[in-house]
Design brief:
Length: 211
């Protein structure tokens, strides 16, 4: 059955740069990002910088589908296990969950700039900072299905959900057990820890909403 018939589908624009906000990490080189009619192109050169897409109102997300292609040196050394490898991913596609917590004065002093920017931009829709549920495209197909809480940033709940084919093409398709109250999307291709260089071309993003 086609994706669009399973749930009410929303197509996310990949050509409108004004719909996305590029966030930078301190002391980390930023990716080269291009928006065009063919899709979204992210060029990684030992770099990392997330993209933020906020919904105008909260949405009850039930499933998602992302298609695209990876090229270049995407088969970076990943270690014998997820724990042993660098904290990089070909693609992290995150659903930003509505939360109840906001940074207090002391937390705001210590928090990295990207956390403060995320909270500020999401404040008109979100009650507070929730978890970011990330579904990864990784080189290691044997890891698909593994989950963890990110050891460096606890708000990230991560699942390896897909791996590219030999030609670099991938399809990230996820159906959630229950709908998630979502305020936006978090998108990141990163190769800074592994000093990797590759290109991710995202052709399509579809979000399925619960009726």
């Amino acid at each position: 059955m086609p994706f669009s018939l399973l749930f009410l589908a929303t197509i996310i624009s990949l050509s409108d740069s004004t719909a996305w906000k590029i966030i930078s990490f301190e002391k980390v080189k930023s990716n080269e990002i291009t928006f065009n009619e063919a899709g979204l192109r992210i060029e990684v050169e030992e770099s990392a910088s997330p993209l933020l897409y906020l919904f105008p109102e909260r949405k009850q997300v039930r499933n998602l589908r992302v298609t695209g292609r990876v090229s270049g040196g995407w088969k970076f050394a990943a270690g014998d296990s997820w724990k042993d490898g660098p904290d990089d991913a070909l693609l992290r596609f995150g659903l930003i969950e509505n939360g109840t917590k906001r940074l207090n004065a002391l937390e705001r002093i210590a928090a990295p700039d990207w956390i403060k920017e995320l909270e500020s931009r999401a404040s008109t829709t979100a009650d507070g900072i929730g978890r970011i549920h990330c579904f990864h495209v990784m080189p290691g197909r044997q890891w698909i299905g593994e989950t963890r809480k990110n050891p460096n940033v606890s708000i990230f709940e991560e699942t390896i959900s897909a791996a590219p084919e030999d030609d670099g093409r991938f399809e990230l398709s996820v159906v959630l057990d229950t709908p998630m109250e979502t305020v936006g999307l978090w998108l990141l291709a990163d190769g800074d820890d592994s000093e990797a260089s590759f290109i991710v071309e995202i052709e399509n993003i579809e979000i399925g909403l619960a009726p």
